[in-house]
Amino acid sequence: MYEFIQKCCLAGKGVEEDYKREWDAVRYLIGGKMFALVGNYKDGRAILSLKHSPEYGIEIQERYPDIIPGYYLNKTHWSSIFIDGNVPESVVKEMISQSYDLVLKSLSKTVQREIMGV
Fold this sequence. Notes:
Elements: H1 4-10, E1 15-20, E2 25-30, E3 33-40, E4 46-51, H2 54-63, E5 67-69, E6 78-82, H3 89-106, H4 109-116
Antiparallel strand pairs: 1-2, 2-3, 3-4, 4-6, 5-6
C-alpha cells in the first residue's frame, strides 16, 4: 500500500482534502479543483487517480501495466494507479507533484498568488 499518498498530497500549499460520499472517494483539491482522487476500481481494488499532460499519460501507461487511463475521469488527462500494483513510489510521488503543479497553473494568477502567499 502507498501509505505516503495522503502525506504527499497534503504537502502542497493550499491543498484541501475531502470525502465525496457519492463516489466513495477521498479527493485532494487546490483552489477548489481536484488534482488527486483515492477511490476504488470496478473490481474493488484501490486506485489513485492523477491529472497529467496527454503525452505523459500515454508514456506512463505504456511503461507500467498498473497505470491505466483515468477510471471514471477524462482518459486523456487522467491516469489511475492500482495502489497495490507494481509502480515505484518515486514514480507515484512524481505523478502527484506533476498533477498538483498542473492544476495550480490552471488557476488564475490571483488565486495562485493567494495560495502561494505571495
